[in-house]
Design brief:
Elements lengths: L9 H13 L3 H9 L9 H15 L6 H10 L8 H10 L7 H28 L6 H17 L8 H18 L11 H7 L7 E6 L5 H13 L8 E6 L4 H13 L3 H6 L4 H15 L3 E4 L6 H14 L3 E7 L14 H19 L2 E7 L22 H5 L2 E6 L1 H4 L8 E9 L5 E8 L4 E4 L6 E2 L1
Parallel strand pairs: 1-5, 1-6, 2-3, 2-4, 4-5
Antiparallel strand pairs: 6-7, 7-8, 8-9, 8-10
Length: 450
């Protein structure tokens, strides 16, 4: 794209940089608007000056004409910006830093418009290719526009910046001490093993039918969205197996501790109605979004998730129930295994793109039923070993009382974590109150971590 048609405002850029040179504290006001990406400036010289100001800020050094010139000289960039003469010109063009935020917003606006121009050009180029499926073109176009909205850097990042961000992250962990890193699931023993739900993770929850994996996901969804603190997150549920009314009925039963059989039979008593009303009040203020579109495709899941993230930036959890029921759209696959592999890889990409936890529910092979010990293993994942490869966490649900009527662990479910990319493996035992579809930490069974 030629520079003469790319949106920009060089005067606004000079006013921003001039304000930073005039007032060393102005960088903080500017930084809150422009962020750390130097490409927000159109002119290459301005990008270099802003980068120098950021480096000085990172070292807590003052910013003025002298320090900026020295920093640019140190990085061999002084001549590339036009020397001290151009720095002086920028400095003298701004008598006060009072309007720094106004001009910074103008610079940001022009930068976003440039990104849209480039995105439009890229989308037009992709749309004209007959060798790419239309559904894939649409998905790529939505991703490009989403990235423009969030303005994430897609290229290389200097190790100095990554190191600084990593050290800040480690320092935050130290200050939090025993507090969770991720989003609490509402199940303390599980949180202790997983450190909560972590952004960008693909979490696969697998089990044989009727083990309670959907109920488990709905419990976590309600716990995440109904928290009373300011950190509660929005939750998206893509349900391919049951309708939205059924999901809400189950959540009401769980939150209200109401026997599901009485709800189904219409035999609620006055105490049930009171509990139902209280549970409805909790859900009414929760940001839970349910999509029960029959035959929804993977591309539609990605598109709807992006749309929801743009509208609700606090979206923290996306649930897909379940993986094998997703539709592949128009793209041809050589095998069902390849198709499921594409699904798991795409869901991992979605988790990273939106910086959310994606919880994908999955069925298991029947082979698990033929063993004496029916506790699932990674090899039991149905139709694809790629699920194991793509997932950050793979956990299985196992209820012994499902197979053995006289089980000594009746009313309990084992959450068996077989893969944990960033932590320990282990088994967490939860109480499962089937009449309420309620999972809660067990009072008498310790967790077993490896």
């Amino acid at each position: 794209m030629a520079s003469d048609v790319s949106p920009h405002d060089l005067d606004a850029e000079r006013h921003v940089l001039g304000a930073v040179l005039v007032d060393t504290e102005a960088i903080h006001r500017v930084l809150s608007i422009l962020g750390e990406q130097t490409t927000v400036f159109f002119k290459a010289a301005h990008q270099l000056i802003y980068a120098a100001a950021l480096r000085l800020t990172q070292r807590s050094d003052p910013i003025d004409l002298y320090t900026i010139a020295n920093e640019l000289k140190r990085s061999d960039d002084l001549s590339r910006v036009g020397g001290v003469a151009y720095l002086y010109e920028v400095h003298e063009s701004v008598p006060t830093a009072a309007n720094a935020e106004y001009y910074a917003e103008t610079v940001r606006d022009k930068s976003t418009r440039r990104a849209l121009v480039h995105a439009g050009t890229e989308i037009i180029g992709r749309a004209g290719r007959d060798d790419v499926e239309l559904e894939e073109v649409v998905d790529q176009a939505q991703r490009i526009l989403f990235e423009v909205n969030y303005r994430e850097d897609r290229g290389f990042v200097d190790i100095e910046q990554v190191l600084r961000e990593t050290m800040e992250y480690i320092e935050q962990l130290y200050k939090r001490k025993d507090k969770l890193v991720g989003i609490p699931t509402g199940l303390p023993d599980l949180d202790q093993l997983l450190y909560g739900l972590n952004p960008a993770d693909l979490m696969v929850v697998a089990a044989r039918p009727s083990m309670g994996k959907s109920a488990f996901a709905h419990n976590i969804a309600a716990n995440v969205a109904c928290r009373s603190d300011e950190d509660r997150q929005a939750v998206a549920i893509f349900t391919l197996e049951m309708g939205r009314e059924q999901i809400l009925t189950r959540m009401l039963a769980t939150l209200g501790r109401i026997d599901m059989s009485r709800i189904r039979q219409g035999t609620l008593n006055s105490d049930d109605w009171r509990r139902l009303s209280e549970a409805a009040g909790q859900l009414e203020t929760a940001q839970i979004f349910i999509n029960d579109t029959p035959g929804i495709t993977l591309m539609e899941v990605r598109a709807e998730s992006r749309r929801l993230k743009m509208r609700y930036p606090n979206l923290g959890l996306v649930i897909v129930d379940y993986l094998q029921m997703l539709q592949g759209g128009t793209r041809a696959h050589h095998s069902r295994e390849q198709e499921i592999s594409d699904y798991s890889r795409s869901l991992k990409e979605l988790a990273r793109e939106l910086d959310v936890t994606v919880m994908a529910l999955s069925q298991l092979n029947r082979a698990v039923e033929s063993r004496n010990d029916r506790r699932p293993m990674l090899s039991d994942l149905r139709e694809s070993g790629a699920i194991e490869q793509d997932a950050d966490i793979v956990m299985f649900l196992y209820r012994d009382d499902y197979y053995n009527e006289n089980s000594e662990t009746a009313g309990q479910v084992e959450i068996i974590v077989r893969k944990h990319r960033n932590g320990a493996l282990g088994t967490v035992v939860l109480d499962f109150q089937n009449q309420y579809l309620l999972f809660k930490s067990s009072d008498h069974m310790p967790a077993d971590y490896v």
